[in-house]
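ok so i was messing around last nite and threw this chain in just to see what happens. nothing serious, just curious
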Amino acid sequence: MKQFPDDSRVRIRLSQSAVNAQLDALDQLASSRTAPNVRRTPRFAYRANEITVELRQRSGQWKQYACPTRNISAHGISLLFAHYVYTGTPVRVGLVSLQNHCTVQTGTVVSCRYLEGSAGIHEVGVKFDAPINVGLFHLGAVPTKLLLADDDASIRKLVPALLRHEHVSVVAVADGTSALQTLQADEFGLAMLDLDMPGMDGCALARELRNRGFALPLIAITAESEQVSHESLRAAGFDLWIPKPLTQISVVSGVQSLKTEPILSSLVHDPEMIELIDSFVTDLRARVRNLREALCGADTATLARQVSRLGVDAQTYGFDAIASVATTLAGRLRSADALDGIQSELRQLIRMCLSATGVACREVGPPPS
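result:
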């Protein structure tokens, strides 16, 4: 990976509003088509006003362009150009991630079509030489695993149906005890808990999860008949609550609002660091489990050591945001602050660790059934 040098770039001679109108028309046309989608992986909106694109000329030299973008997938990108581009042309594309990191992907032009009435604008399709982790460039492409706990069988069927287009895989259980066991056995991005369940209800389960160091976002499913204040839900550990009857808008917007952006290392441009970064990210899962165990046992000394080491290692591998939170938290733990006073900071640190993303491609497809 590399970054482009600063240079003069050829730009489309259209206002941004005119470019947006062209992109909106293309998206509307695509959404109105009835033909099945035969693409290997889904495409996601990727509206950057300008990214740097280099085309190799017949002379062998590379010429730079500033191009608006339309959408992106694990295997390619759609761009707007001010002129026709021959298929087979080698390309270098500077992609900007959600956290404003720039990475350069090589590829080949595989399609070029003139946009009628656009004063010379063409839509160019580029196929990447190697697949990318598209979740770094669109939050909707980040796969999410959701645990649903509800004793109502119809809700356990409804929620996966409402989220079928959101790249969310749902694991459904019927009671709080099963939910706790499932969360202990596997890693989830968030959980949706019904308040009225037999045995361990939603609030009791949320409190138990927080006491055990689980930091995943929690959504409460509430009914009109349940007289529960928002303050008591927050105190139990819920981040959000959704009233029944559940709707697609309420469920999808709730899940989307709690998705966290992937955190990318600042050292991704160094090829020699890629394997080390990926290994560190994999190791973070085990570190999170150790943090939970120490927190559950109220072992402040062990927590202080683990958090301090995490801060040093996160800095080493370019995860500066994680390092900053961990370093501050380690100092508070060494000063013997009560654990109750730093619960929110510990949850923030754990969430950040689970959001850290390696460089290796993770293709996004339909969620498993």
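not much to say yet. The first strand starts at residue 10 and ends at 11.
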